Predict the 3D structure of the following.
Amino acid sequence: MVEIHAVDIADPIRTQAILRRYGFKFKKSLGQNFLTNQRVLTEIVDAADLQPTDLVVEIGPGIGSLTEQLARRVQQVVAVEIDSRLIPILDETMAPYDNVQVINQDILQTDLKTLIAPYPDHGAIKVVANLPYYITTPIMFRLIEGEIQPDRLVLMMQKEVAQRITSGPKSKHYGSLSVSVQTQMATNIAAIVPKTSFVPQPNVDSAVLVLQRYLESPYQISEPELFNKIVTSSFQQRRKSLQNNLCTLFGKDQRPQIIEIIAALELPAQVRAEQLTINQFNQLTDLCAQRLAKH
């Protein structure tokens, strides 16, 4: 018989009781921090804009505090957990929910197409995840650029990383990560999460980042490979001018043409990368493709 609890898994008292019963010890190597703040869970669920027909892929369910909230609202939750020690705990905590499937895999090694294949009648695909700080960016780009492209990602991550992703020109946080993500997804921070919301408590605050796939991208990148090279190189040495960073990429012999390109964009000769919009980087790429002898 399934034991029904009046208290949610995220309640600190119930969380501690579950951890004690299983003698669970946190692994620093996996970046494990379990959420025990009901307000933050509500903010995550609200940010996901869940509909009853949605299929949600959750990464790193832990003991199921967020999984429980998702299962109450959507058609199907597929939870991917790398730590095999958590599987028996999830078997217990998720027993009341017949719309939750727990998979013991590394999300970076998981074929998402195969993962969701058993559920062909779903609506939108959404990803909700409390990401380990040390592996946030690889997971995020795998989700953005993979074969299965979720409509919306709601990702808990280190606050500073979320600020870098959402920042615009002339901000100290703006960089190649901002441009790379924003060319593919609309970004916003739904909530700042204090470090006291977790067990164990991390050293820094977190943020709930929402990435929404564009229905129609505002950026038409005609030379994506060159665009990515130029953006990465332009921010390589932030204190250097755009001109000098482009010379490093294309060769010092190309300086006269690079100066002409920057002037053609009506930018100051000593402009830095952080002052360019994404559209200006796109225009820069097109001019470099047309005018430079090699790239």
Observations:
- The domain at 12-213 is CATH 3.40.50.150 (Rossmann fold).
- The chain is about 35% helix and 15% strand.
- The longest helix spans residues 278-291.
